[in-house]
């Protein structure tokens, strides 16, 4: 089967990345394997042996436990709790292999999706597999940086796939499983909620009480199963009158029985750490990156008129995870962010329920569903609190599915569909471009730079090749195309400068003994550039975020009008 050949080629390419330098996320996941294989369940979310505490939902913790249990047969050091920053050759290869194995699940989910979309065009099938399984942004994050997103996206794609088949209950099951693997996929929840309310609970514009109860029971059942070991610990504490005080302190209280929910409270506090601040250490390309950049520029422009405010407080670009204070623009707290997101989501839900007409045809309904997922995820990403750049991968993959569904679904001639080709093409291009460029600064190792650059260029080339093969309406000679090329080139240059800054201690050249005026001039320019890079050492990565953030605003607008 040719599809399997494509999968094999992509997986083989990923095997070649085993020796690339992983990020601190490698130690994060090693430590989680150690926590789950060393401590009792009730202590998992209390442990602070390492700074990399467990902060994913229970289902992911069980996943780490399983991998950790298997790892004992390859390297027992992986699951030793106090073995901080452990990285033997066996450890590296085992951990890399666990990521690679996720490609099997991703490939299976893509085959299921292709079947659900009823794609018969062989070229389109190959392109879809390459566009998602071979997406450079995903490869950078999982196979170099180190994460397990292929497993998560497999669940997301299966959920979407079942919805496209009109098997909504199975779609809900896989989505709830996804939430219990990584809670940040709550980005998609408003779209699921409104869509299911419209097309399941009020199917054919009539209340279907049995369908609602079945859906509610299914969701609750999956959540209860996910939290069952922790609920059992709460039950045992209740029976034994034990109250958990911390990671290891258990105190008896024999006088009264109390239902102690501290375990659940601790889990929630780990999943939603609002004290981390508005912006991540490396700005995600969203609205707040632009907001912070404007604040910094405003301080430079109006510094002489600000008096005491002239001492910069905006620490958002210093590579630190902390609360952000702005100098000129109003400070933004979690309360403000929640209001913005709440208002936008209410508008989205009301639009889905009352403005978008009820679609009888499954193809039209599915187009709406994919669009709703895209808009919902963009709202959370663009205005969310402490958003990571990795979250944009979700948008990129949904946009890819949206694009292929619009152009290649068997149900009807795509030329007769009522949509704007130019907007759809541009949406697909921009989400792919931002998805890969926003991950670039995460890879700073000089020896991995060429690999990263190759993945960036390859991903962009595949995206452009896809739209060229799909249709002939995309005009590469437009001004927008040249602007995009300029921005891509600019980000690549900035990323190169950032890599140089991060790996080399650049110093000024001495000019004593040099008599040639031309050489003196060149040295003078060089020294000025070095001083500039030293003073503004965070400028390249800041500009990368801002450029991508600008493109994200364009993506948001296109998603609303596609």
Q: How are the SSEs ordered, and which strands pair?
A:
Layout: H1 2-15, H2 25-38, H3 58-71, H4 89-117, H5 122-133, H6 136-146, H7 149-164, H8 168-181, H9 189-201, H10 209-240, E1 242-244, E2 250-252, H11 262-271, H12 287-302, H13 334-355, H14 362-383, H15 392-408, H16 421-437, H17 449-470, H18 479-503, H19 517-535, H20 539-561
Antiparallel strand pairs: 1-2
Helix pairs in contact: 1-4, 1-5, 2-3, 4-5, 4-7, 5-15, 5-17, 6-16, 6-17, 7-8, 8-10, 9-13, 9-14, 12-20, 13-14, 14-15, 14-20, 15-16, 16-17, 16-20, 18-20
Describe this structure in words.
The chain has 562 residues and is mainly alpha-helical. Among the domains are: 23-86, no CATH class; 221-272, no CATH class. 64% of the residues lie in helices and 1% in strands. It contains 20 helices and two strands. It has helices at residues 2-15, 25-38, 58-71, 89-117, 122-133, 136-146, 149-164, 168-181, 189-201, 209-240, 262-271, 287-302, 334-355, 362-383, 392-408, 421-437, 449-470, 479-503, 517-535, 539-561; strands spanning 242-244, 250-252. Strands 1-2 form a two-stranded antiparallel sheet. Strand 1 and strand 2 (250-252) form a beta hairpin. It is globular. It starts with a helix and ends with a helix.
